[in-house]
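Task card 7
Instruction: Convert sequence to structure tokens.
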Amino acid sequence: MYKNLAAAFAAACVITSAFAQTSHPPQPVEPLKVGFVYVAPLLDAGWVHQHDEGRKAVEAALGNRVQTRFVENVAEGPDGERVIRDLAQQGYGLIFTPSFGYMEATLKVAQEFPSVRFESITGYKTAANVATANARYYEGRYLAGIAAGRLTKSHVAGYVAGFPIPEVLQGINAFALGMRSVDAQAQVHVVWLNAWFDPTRERDAAMTLFNQNADVIAFHTASTAVMAAAQERGKLAVAYHSDMRNVAPDAQILAVTHQWGAYYTQRARAVLNGSWKSCNVWGGVKEGMIRVEGFGSKVPKAVQDEVLARQKDIAADKLQPFAARAAVLDNEGHVVIPAGTRLSDAQILNMNYLVAGVQGKVAQ
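Output:
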């Protein structure tokens, strides 16, 4: 799907819990101005909320050594390029652009401002002054699938999906595999929106899935609309990005949360001490970038304990969501993970199929 994706991550820098960097002088004048560009409005939960928590963590850790600013609800494309360029022109020395659709704009502006450091979050193309970072969201999705498989009564889950990029396909497939690891009858029905943030359509898609017998739902979009729909319908739901029990106190099974504070802080500190360099980071449960938490009141302790035990297994590399004892097929009957093997990072990063048990197609 993205031919250069695997090659780009093949040169990834070594990930450690401290996100160590190597030398790249000179040091900037303090305070370092750090900018953040957000693809949707800043709400009380969701994708943008988690990145803003990361911004706040930078301020808390580095104090008056940094000055941060965010611009919210910036559309990908020309608007994104305009805002990124505006921040660079205003003297921001480190700019985070956390949305896949900002990647090309970030690279273009970076060419014009070689002394500014840019962080393309979820992108995969780098330059001398552009680093990339992403998280292994699929690890949390697999764990959520285990919980969903234990709690479903209809054996049908719904999934509201944004765009058919590998990151989203990884999540759908990991969720289905986790669910079917404890419920062999489980099916996952997918609705594609081709949008990251559209609360009205997110809600409508959730309602459609509930009408198709789904009694538990997951999503890969940026608002809390799916959680609110589950609460309204008396169904169960997996929160994404953030803990969303304030929106769906009865519906939430658990939350797959993204933790950006440590990474953002370390990257800002690296600019301040002259050690920033361009690289690729892809961290997950082990690195503390992904975790499941926020179990709802309807989740039995035995299920909570099972999920948390599997999370420890992932952190210890004892469990890999895309490893197969028996062959894993896609939903067209082709073998995609041979028995006794596990997918390489390159294969995961170029995922372009839906596994058996998922009802739907990879939207074009």
